[in-house]
Amino acid sequence: MKRLHLYVIKSFLGPFFMTFFICLFVLLMQFMWKYIDDMVGKGLDWSVLSELIFYASFGLLPLAFPLSMLLASIMTFGSLGENYELVAIKSAGVSIIRIMRPLMVLAVIISLIAFYFANNVLPHTNLKFMTILYSVKQQKPELILKEGVFTNEIENYSIRVGKKDNNTNMLYDILVYDHSRGTVNDKVTVADSGKLEMTEDRKYMVFTLYSGINYVEEQSRNNSGKRTYPHREDRFDKQIVNMKLKNFEFNRRDESLFKNLYRMLNIDQLLAAEDSLHYDYKNRVRRFIRDNRFNSTLMVHLMNHTVQHDSLKRVLDDKPDTIFNTTLMFDEIDHWQKHEVLQNAISNVRSNNQEVNNFQNNLYGAKKMINKHEMERHKKFTLSIAVLLFFFIGAPLGTIIRKGGLGMPVVVSIFLFIIYYVISLTGEKSAREDVWDMFVGMWISSMIFFPVGVWLTYKAVTDSGIMKTETYIDFVKKLKLTLTRKKPAVLNENSSDNQ
Question: Contact 174/193 with Cβ under 8 angstroms?
């Protein structure tokens, strides 16, 4: 039995590591596509890019673990079934559950590793990644000249190029506005062609211009009181302009800016942050109720639909409202005063309505931040449990379809993972917007896939042919036979009624 277990484990580890790196590569390409605009044209060193991709790959591991587990389990048991090895093992009296037992232990170990990684390693890698990505976004991009468009990336200069030659890096029909003297458009350079290069220390941009004219407006020197506009033109065959660059070097930002974000926290830190956020959230409601008692009914409605906390509802009992006979008071005043009272009442209602709306928007933002912390805490468990769920789906599914390799298993795995991902995103969005309860929204995908795994395991143990074409053909034939037997009985009943 030990040899059989070792053989099953050896057959599983190869596809698992292969599919793991394939899934990680595909997810990494999706990341590159998402952030390509933030990295292009920044002149980043390979060390910075490799570090950014390295930390980004760590952030994608929680998604790669379940998908690789699903693929590897389908491929392993599908290959065993395709080569009739499962038939031979079962003929020796070994059940499917005993064959799956060593991989169950391995799946539990991988799930625990995924949880430890999500709780202890991922927060640190997310902090590193966010710091580097923010530093890259804040870096001033290199000068990228586009044809027919003014570029103002270099301080004190505005440059337009009519045409670019990508093969020789030559620029044609050049127009340069020099604002280095603090005035607007008092020095303009027009050149037939030129070349733009950056120094190795990335501190200066060297602009070599050919066959051009410098137009310079001089300051007036007329003492007679009349304003004059002196003008000078300087022609040149070759001119070199050194432009000093600022903020073009890569500056790494301080990690302390992001260390308190919810993605950079472990479970204990998330729980502490949630307690603080809940306490601040409740205090906001208390202060608003205490300072704005213009409508107790409205406050009760606000609390019942926003807070749902008994201790906050007792605040209204501290100061009972004084009841006025407003109808009698309104009838006793003059007609012109009634109009003034109504206008004041309308103004107060609008002001109160705006104040309540602003407060509700602030509460919405605070509650959304609480939900993000709770979602991040649940994710550390759901993605780890997903490894186990996908094993109990993939292993029996592989024994049923009996196809190995990267053909059918890949199609089935991608289909199932897309369904799981869509359900997870729907639940997360509903939980974040308080449409669903947080636990239901974060665990609904696991709740749906758990019975699917149990059902597939049962079908695999009982040698069900749910993936065989003959099963459905026989079902259709039986259905047709049943219908044809019922039709004569119906016809006989109709004929007897007619008689």
Answer: yes
What distances in angstroms separate CA 479 from CA 271, 472, 474, 490, one per listed residue? Answer: 57, 10, 9, 17
Residue 444 banded pLDDT, cuts 50, 70, 90: very high
Q: How far apart are CA 128 and CA 36, in angstroms?
A: 18
Residue 305's contacts (CB-CB under 8 Å, 6 or more residues apart) are: none
Tell me, letter by letter, the H, E, C secondary structure of 72-111: HHHHHHHHHHHCCHHHHHHHCCCCHHHHHHHHHHHHHHHH
- Please give the angle made by the CA atoms of 87, 109 and 125, to the nearest 5 degrees: 130
Contacts (Cβ under 8 Å, ≥6 apart) of 162 = 147, 148, 172, 173, 174, 175
Residue-wise pLDDT for 330-355, tens only, equals: 565 666 666 776 777 788 778 777 77
- Radius of gyration over every alpha carbon of the chain, rounded to an integer in angstroms: 36
Question: What are the strands, taking DSSP E only, across 181-335?
Answer: 187-198, 204-217, 231-244
Axis-axis angle for helices 438-461, 408-432 (nearest 10) = 160
CA distances from 60 to 30, 118, 138, 174, 418 (A): 10, 10, 24, 46, 16
Average pLDDT of span 13-32: 85
pTM (whole model) above 0.70: no
Q: Are 116 and 138 in contact (CB under 8 A)?
A: no
Distance set, CA 73 to CA 54, 329, 421, 459, 465 (Å): 27, 80, 19, 16, 19
- Residues 370-425 have pLDDT tens digits of 888 899 899 889 988 999 999 988 888 888 877 766 777 778 778 888 898 899 88
* Tokens encoding 90: 């079962």
Helix axes 46-82, 335-401, angle to 10 degrees: 50
Q: How is residue 154 written in tokens?
A: 């270099």
Read off the pLDDT band of 492 (50, 70, 90): low
- Between 170-174, 214-218, 235-239, the lowest mean confidence (pLDDT) is in 214-218
Using alpha carbons, select from 269, 206, 268 the residue that is nearest to residue 238: 206
Torsion of CA 56, 59, 62, 67, to 10 degrees: -20
Rounded mean pLDDT of the chain?
Answer: 76
Whether the Cβ atoms of residue 194 and residue 209 lie closer than 8 Å to each other: yes
Task: List the beta strands (DSSP E) in 361-450.
Answer: none
Residues 6+ positions from 82 with CB-CB distance below 8 Å: 402, 403, 404
State the distance between the two ends of the chain, measured CA to CA, in whole angstroms: 74
Plot region of 463 (φ>0 → left; ψ -120 to 50 → alpha; else → beta): left
Chain mean position to CA 398: 32
